[in-house]
Write a structure and sequence with these properties.
Length: 412
Amino acid sequence: MKRLLVLGAGTAGTMIANKLRPRLDEREWKITLVDQNETHYYQPGLLFLPFGTYKREDLEKPKRRFIPAGVDLHMGEIDLVEPDKNQVKLVDGTELPYDYLIIATGTHPTPDETPGLDGDEWYKSIFDFYTIEGAEALAEKLETWEGGKLVVQIIEMPIKCPVAPLEFIFLADAFFAERGMRDSVQLEYVTPLPGAFTKPVAAKYLGDMLDDRKITLESDYFLERVEGDEHKLVSYDEREIDYDILVTIPVNMGSKYIERSGLGDELRHVPVDKRNFLSTKHDNIFALGDAAALPTSKAGSVAHFAVDIFTDNFLDYIQGKPMREEFDGHANCFIESGNGKGMLIDFNYDTEPLPGKYPLPGVGPFSLLQETEANHWGKLMFKWAYWNVLLEGRAMPIPALMSMAGKIREEV
């Protein structure tokens, strides 16, 4: 019997299990999914938790609920992948052999990579919102905060959901205005990028939105250290930024076992062929989702589109056939902009976000690079689709490869 081993029961790993199980004969294939945590969090919802839109119970469900019959879920911490032996060792000593391995253990905030970040002020004046613990601590802080300077700061790219920091500061602007205290709050957005976003057209739109909201933008800022006692950021070129509350996006890194196994780059993401997700080092190892070193966004939409492409490719590959599809880096993201409105961007490896209508040309119902109420409701409704359609491997009415239909080319 052939053995398929999937590491990680998050978004990508769960979708893979649901899509492949009905297409691989159970008499010939054993599928095992490995994870160390029982709870699945709807990560896009963490953005809203600090502002009271959601609570923890709105964003969590048991992972076992989404694992299909015929897939073994093995709970345990991964210690090492041994490609020369085609096996994975767990911390408790368990050895799991494989014929094919899929790495889908994501990327994670790693605050201890930055001097001073996770010191005594962690969850006192310094917060993240990419973890359930950080989002809850920040919610508690904002509930009683009387004003001052709030800084949203990205340490290094890539990060998962790269638009979330912008969404956070837009929501913060609306949150404080609704409480009648916006004039008592100074907002600053600090990024290592040359502008508000990685792509020029989108960066222009988003930069204008920051200006309209009187949010200061500090670009090309590469953080060297945090001086928590003095509430101060210090960059490598010695620019100093003070704050009362720091909302930071720490360095994002893959799981430590990837480094121990010699499978990752300097950020512990797995180098793969960007078109088919096959490891550049091993011909029976793939990496998907945020665990893969791909030149596109680390976002749930990328995992969704990638898994759609991967499924047929994998079935070809195990039969010795050429993989038929090539992933184009397709990503689309709703950008919550506050006050009941949102934007939408849709792009891939070669085409940056452009204005237009999506998914139907001239109809939408969603507008690209434009603030609308429909985009806001699209983002909120996606939570239902995530739990009830996406994770279970059901087809979404969106093509995996990006289409230019409805897009308007625009010069910067």
